[in-house]
Amino acid sequence: MRAVVVNSFGGPEAVEVVETEVPRPGACQVRIKVAAASLNPVDAGVRAGVFGGAGERIGLGWDVAGTVDAVGAVDAAGAWSVGDEVVALHYGAVKPLGTHAEYVVVDADAVAPAPATVDAVHAATLPLNALTAAQALDRLEPAPGRSSLLVTGAAGAVGGYAVRLAAQRGMAVTGLAREGDEDFVRSLGARHVTSDAVATRGFDAVLDAAVLGEPALAWVRDGGRYIGVIPHAEPASVRGVETGAVEVSADGARLAELVRLLDEGVLTTRVAETYALEDAAKAHARLGEGSVRGRLVLVP
């Protein structure tokens, strides 16, 4: 099969499409024939060596939508059958094969039924970003009477899901976004949208999807909460503010809840462009240009 990998770190030119053996599922695993797999900023970080792994062949890709092609031991992966249409998160920055491939093996408990209302290309944009947003919000669950939330990067993939999910929970959400994104962020459920949060300090919590760090921490009230989206990169606590960062985890049951919300119209997906698998380097170059609204998706 074909798979997208890096053998050395660098820019888009480091991305290679190689021939490799089709992986076999072990106990508690399933193999998915990939229909679509989205490209995320974390893939660019892996490609550039941010997460280590020098000297190894590293497979790219975390999100996948496709069809179950094989299962491990029946008693271990009995929830899934060959032919099931699914989505999954393949967690891990340094791994020999990712989802940017024709087939991928994932743990059975990382898998959820595919959405019924969108195609595989759109479904592939859901797992990583929606799970990150949901798990970050879990860390920020407010006390009674304390429900104001600022989401930075509110028009982005993680930020957009965070705004929608937080609004559904009844939180008073303010989105920090560019002026041109105001209508979109309001459509997600934000009560207020700003391009400059300095004038609106005192939030009970900040979900820093834009990775602003200390400037975003300054907008939290004394004793509030700050959550980032890059593990171990959150700013130090000040003024009694609890700080932390979400490290997304593969969770098929939680992903199934998000799929249900997508099918109910609560969540929406955004696709910017699609690329053939052999054009993965071009997709990385496009991601590096910035100003991408929605995800770039590879289609084997």
UniProtKB/TrEMBL annotation:
Domain Enoyl reductase (ER), first and last residues per copy: 10-298
Presence of the UniProt keyword Protein transport in the record: no
Class of enzymatic activity (EC top level): oxidoreductase
MF term (GO), any: oxidoreductase activity
EC number of this enzyme: 1.-.-.-
CDD domains: MDR_like_2 (cd05289)
Keywords: Oxidoreductase
Keyword Magnesium among record annotations: no
Matches recorded under Pfam families: ADH_N (PF08240), ADH_zinc_N_2 (PF13602)
Coiled-coil parts of chain: none
PANTHER family found in the cross-reference section: PROTEIN AST1-RELATED
The protein, known as: NADP-dependent oxidoreductase
Native organism: Streptomyces violaceochromogenes
